[in-house]
Specification:
This protein is of the alpha+beta class. A 6-stranded mixed sheet has the order 1-3-2-4-5-6, with helices on one face. β2, α1 and β3 form a beta-alpha-beta unit. The chain is built from 4 helices and 6 strands; from the N terminus they run ββαββαβαβα.
Length: about 140
C-alpha cells in the first residue's frame, strides 16, 4: 500500500442537498473508478446509478485517493445524524464492482443506512476495516 496524501472530497451535484440522510463517499482516486484497473466494471454507470438512486435519500460525494487501493472500488457509507445517535458508524465497502452491490447499498440507504437499518447480508462480503491512519486522514479532511 502506498502512502498517498488523501485529497479533500469533491462534492457531487447532490452534496448541496439537505444533509439529513447518510453521506456516501465514493473513491475516484488513483485506482478506484479506473477502467485500466477494473476493465469489466462500468464505473460511469455505477456513479449514475448512485446519483439516481440516492438523490432523495443521501448526500453523494466523490473523493480522491483514500489510500486503500487494494480494495478498489471503495464506497464509504456514513450514518445520518439520527443514525449516528442510534449507534451507527461509517461502513467501508471495498471491491464494489457489480451492479448487485450498488443496488444493495442504495436499498440499505433508502431504509435508513447505518444505525437505522441492517445492511443486506451480501454487503458483509464487501465490508472492510481500514487502518486507523486512513480513518483519521478521512476524518480530518475538509468537508467531512
Amino acid at each position: 500500500m502506498s502512502r498517498r496524501t488523501t485529497r479533500p472530497a469533491v462534492p457531487s451535484a447532490r452534496a448541496a442537498g439537505s444533509g439529513a440522510g447518510p453521506m456516501v463517499t465514493v473513491c475516484r482516486g488513483c485506482c478506484c473508478g479506473r477502467p485500466d484497473k477494473n476493465s469489466a466494471v462500468d464505473h460511469t454507470g455505477q456513479l449514475d446509478r448512485l446519483r439516481q438512486d440516492l438523490d432523495a435519500t443521501a448526500t453523494l460525494r466523490l473523493t480522491g485517493c483514500l489510500d486503500v487501493c487494494e480494495q478498489s472500488n471503495v464506497i464509504i457509507v456514513q450514518p445520518s445524524a439520527k443514525g449516528r445517535a442510534a449507534g451507527g458508524r461509517p461502513v467501508w465497502l471495498g471491491l464494489v464492482h457489480d451492479t448487485g452491490a450498488i443496488e444493495d447499498i442504495t436499498t440499505w440507504i433508502a431504509a435508513g443506512g447505518p444505525g437505522l437499518a441492517d445492511p443486506p447480508a451480501t454487503l458483509d462480503l464487501y465490508e472492510f476495516t481500514p487502518s486507523r491512519r486512513i480513518r483519521n486522514d478521512l476524518d480530518s479532511a475538509p468537508g467531512t
